[in-house]
Amino acid sequence: MIGLARKTLEPCAVLLAAIAVVAGFCSCQKRPEGTATPGGQAQVAGQITTPTGMEMVRVPAGSLAMGNDGEIDAKPVHQVSVSAFYMSKHEVTQQVYEKVMGKNPSKWQGETNPVERVSWLDAVRFCNALSDKEGLRPCYDAKTGACDFEADGYRLPTEAEWEYACRSGTTTNYHFGRNDADLERYGWFQDNAMGQPHPVGKKRPNAFGLCDMSGNVREWCNDWYQVDGYKQDASGPVTDPRGPAKGQKKVLRGGAWSVTAKSCTSWARYCDDPGFTDACLVQDDCGFRCVRRTTTAPR
Q1: Distance between CA 140 and CA 138 in Å, rounded?
Q2: What are the φ and ψ backbone dihedral angles of 232, each rounded to 5 degrees?
């Protein structure tokens, strides 16, 4: 009967049936819970590999409601716009770090493990060294650590860039939704990491194609940390904010293998000494990833 019915369908009816099947298939493809409305929708961006072997993703320009009103250092929620940029698909690995710097400071050794036990200053030195290696203009002043955002070299993401990239169009606590039980599929944290970091890229990426944005190692940002730092941006929309002009500690984002699920949310903030003095004790859950301008494609 089914075969006979198919034979008697008119051409137009066949076309309509095909359209219905496609529509039904598309309706089953669920976007991440809390995904922003059109204008802020997340899509997997193009990916490239640099001469050093670091994969980078082009993060498109957009906006986000940054922060969380439930946490003293993440409020108030405020609107931020971010220009397009390239970001490392993974946390910088020990293999890449050693290739550029000639050493590996990590406690948990492994070529594809994220480099850890690196201070903020170690991270910006890596960015400058990588820029030199690839014939780009370094972003950081070697003496002061000041960042030249117009340079075409590598740098650390601003806190706004980091949160925008992590959220990848979502508005929920995590880039994959509200349920912290789902973190098992997206990141290494206290409940599943077995007391150590893991090779990068083993968990599901977010909607921009970035891996390990929740857990594994905390990631250094360019910004100085202030508990009430968001208040200065809360008066209206801000484009490409760069954080406080000064401070004592630098921002870390993304949670780590050593912390709870709540500390791996898209808005959770942490901070530590940047490492300008020998007194800095660098933790084995601190790493980083790099960003670059998009005015010229990475070589």
Answers
A1: 6
A2: -70, -20
List pLDDT tens digits, range 125-174: 999 999 999 999 999 999 999 999 999 999 999 999 999 999 999 999 99
Q: What pLDDT does 237 receive?
A: 74
Rounded CA-CA distance 242/61 in Å is 16
- CATH number of the domain residue 186 falls in: 3.90.1580.10
Alpha helices in the chain (DSSP H): 2-7, 11-27, 94-101, 120-133, 159-167
Q: What is the total count of domains within the chain?
A: 1
Q: State the pTM of this model.
A: 0.84
27: which 2 tokens? 């309706």
User: What is the chain's length?
Assistant: 299
Full residue range of the structural domain in which residue 175 is found: 55-292
Residue 139 falls inside a structural domain: yes
| 241 within domain boundaries | yes
The verdict on residue 298 lying in a domain is no
CA angle at residue 64 from 211 to 162, to 5 degrees? 35
Q: Is residue 61 part of a domain?
A: yes
Residues 171, 173, 179, 185: is their CA dihedral positive or negative? positive
